[in-house]
Amino acid sequence: MKDSFDILVVGAGPAGIAAAVSAAACGKRVGLVDDNPAAGGQIWRSGGEVPDDAQRWIAMLEASSVARLQGWRVFDAPRSGVLHAERGDGECGELCYKNLILATGARERFLPFPGWTLPNVMGAGGLDALVRGGVPIAGKRVVVAGTGPLLLAVAAHLKRHGARIVAVCEQAPLSRLVRFASRLLGEPAKLRQGAEYRIAIRGARYLTGCWIVAAHGRDRVESVRLRQGSKQWDVACDFVGCGFHLVPNIELPALLGCRIDHGFVSVDDSMQTSVPGVYCVGEPTGIGGVELAVLEGEIAGRAAAGRADEARKHAQRRRGKLGFLRALQEVCTLDPQLRSLPTADTRICRCEDVRLVSLDGHNTWRDAKLQTRCGMGPCQGRVCGPATEFLFGWRVESVRPPIFPALVSSLGSACEADGLQQNSAPQGASPAFEKETL
Amino acid sequence: MSDAGRIIALTVNGAAVSVAAGTTVAAAVMIAGALTRRSVAGEPRGPLCGMGICFECRVTIDGIPHQRSCQILCAPGMSVSTAGLPTP
């Protein structure tokens, strides 16, 4: 498959949808590539309740001229103006663009604790996504833990699906949450939403300055041990949703050479990165939530379509919304005590089963990778990288293609239109290949 | 959605499973009582991220290995096999 666009958007979450719809409204030929089965990204994922805003934007997307490539994952940027993507069935695509808008979103930060690898211990957003995908949760006992406003949203949504929320454990202390709430006084919609979530989970224990110290079970989680201050106790549960706020997906922007500053993609007022013609919107530029993401999409869509004046008008509104981003960052600051959760035997790298004790004596991400295989599995360090960043202060230094495991047949020139025949019989992914890419 | 409520029949490790249209393969594996995989040290594993980045949910679908089951919807007649066998 080969296609060309004036503007190509990567990621069909709120920012990507807004960017694609805005650019298409300017008369440009726009492509929207996304690796999920349906548009919406994580926060507007279908299944269960979808907010009004999401329905409105998805309806606009459906009514637009945007060419949609759903279920395609971008794994390489072999040269300027070209991305390579692969579909689950092994088909490969070459996507050409004049301007590119990256809306690659964010993932949860996971922190290792004893038992965190047990089945049914998931991310908070992860559990929510799986329930939206049909995992039965009615009557199940659920502990939601970690940090950030996502915890309450997830708990409220799972409860509406019939889950029994045993406890919501927020690592931040109450004093910081109160300060966060007071900073939201200028944003009544956000305050109201928080209150609604809190009311939805009434009856469940909402614990602050509290976290899971261990999960127990044989083949699945059966209970967790919670700690709050000097108190420690066990609670029985069937599922755990545990996520420590979000980390941006900056692999593709980094591969394209976009300047990264303190872990986020640097952009100007029009959301353009340091690479001319490449824009970045939503969480990769700063974890600011869905409203900011949509606004950034609207700015970049217009700017990439050459409507600088219109983009500038939205840019002023964006500056007014950056306060929430900073408040969010502050409230989600991780308690240093969380660094002592993993024990010697706790798996830090889940792909390669690398235990904490094996990382002793290694001082950098690269050193640990070379000596212990930490971060060398198929997730390419997307899970253990942010964990070791918090635990040891390590930095994931380089990004190399393919940024996701890809079939051997998809790599290099096999993606060219005349090489497509070779892709009809996939011969398995190539775990060996990405293990070689340091 | 026009097909909402439609029932899809597939197999997980040879056992028949029926799910509603729109259900992911990861959910079908969990409904079947199977684990998605075993780790390199043999530990049982299940989905973690729900969004296709952790690779803990990878299974074999219609003979193609390493498919992220949380990103793929069930289809009629699909044959799913996992390294984690059903547990009672």
Feature tags:
heterodimer; A: 438 residues; FAD/NAD(P)-binding domain; 3 domains; seven-stranded mixed β-sheet; globular; B: 88 residues; mainly beta; Ubiquitin-like (UB roll); five-stranded mixed β-sheet; two-stranded antiparallel ribbon
Please report the total strand number of chain A as a whole number: 21
Low-confidence stretches of chain A: 417-438
**The first-level CATH class name of chain B:** Alpha Beta
How many domains comprise the coordinates of chain B?
A: 1
Which CATH top level class of the largest domain in chain A fits?
A: Alpha Beta
State the CATH architecture of the largest domain in chain A.
3-Layer(bba) Sandwich
- Helix content range of chain A: 25-40%
Major sheet attributes of chain B? 5 strands, mixed
Overall mean pLDDT of chain A stands at 92
- Radius of gyration of chain B, in angstroms, nearest whole number: 12 Å
Q: Which chain pair has the greatest contact?
A: A-B, 49 and 41 residues
Count of helical regions of chain B? 1
Helix-strand string of chain B: EEHEEEEE
- Which consecutive residue ranges of chain B, at least 5 long each, have pLDDT under 50? none
The global form of chain A is: globular
CATH topology of the largest domain in chain A: FAD/NAD(P)-binding domain
